[in-house]
Amino acid sequence: MHVVVDDNFFEELEKMLRLICFRIRVNGREALKNYPITPAQFDLLQRLYFDGPQTMTKLSQILGVAKSTTTGLVTRLERDGFLRRRPSDADRRVIVVEITELGSEVIKSVINKRVEYIKRVMSNFKNAEAVELFKKLRELYEVIQESR
Predict the structure, then answer these.
(1) Looking at the domain assignment, is residue 105 inside a domain?
(2) Would you say residue 87 lies in a domain?
(3) Per-residue exposure over 118-130, b if at least 16 CB sit within 10 Å of its own CB, e if not
(4) What stretches in the chain show pLDDT beneath 50?
(5) Is 90 part of a structural domain of the chain?
(6) Which residue intervals define the domain HTH marR-type in the entry (predicted)?
(7) Which domain holds residue 39?
(8) Cα(141)–Cα(148) distance, rounded to whole angstroms?
(9) Cβ atoms of residues 32 and 106 within 8 Å
(10) Contact 46, 107 (CB under 8 A)
């Protein structure tokens, strides 16, 4: 079934999704108050947690920042025990950055805060409504992934 909607619908959908993501992100970052980590450092940790070990060059590309900025972030996070640098197994001249157990703890803490927030928000729905809403959002996500 194909539903015809005007451009205003898509503008409103974008706005709604942006605001939802923002509120989830803000609530999750409440957990960062327990750690000496900036939002930029958190973004780097999050990439390592979800994407696995990366070279400095790849991290810079993923984050969309200069290598010098990435180096500063990595240096501080390594100093505080959230990640470590090591030579690549494939080429010992290449340095790979990987998250430590402490860094993973930070990510898990933020994810737990996000999940708690979503549970509170979703508790306003009747159970069946919440499930249907989630299914529709998952379908939307799959369509967006396919169009990449």
Answers:
(1) yes
(2) yes
(3) beeeeeeeeeeeb
(4) none
(5) yes
(6) 10-142
(7) 7-146
(8) 11
(9) yes
(10) yes
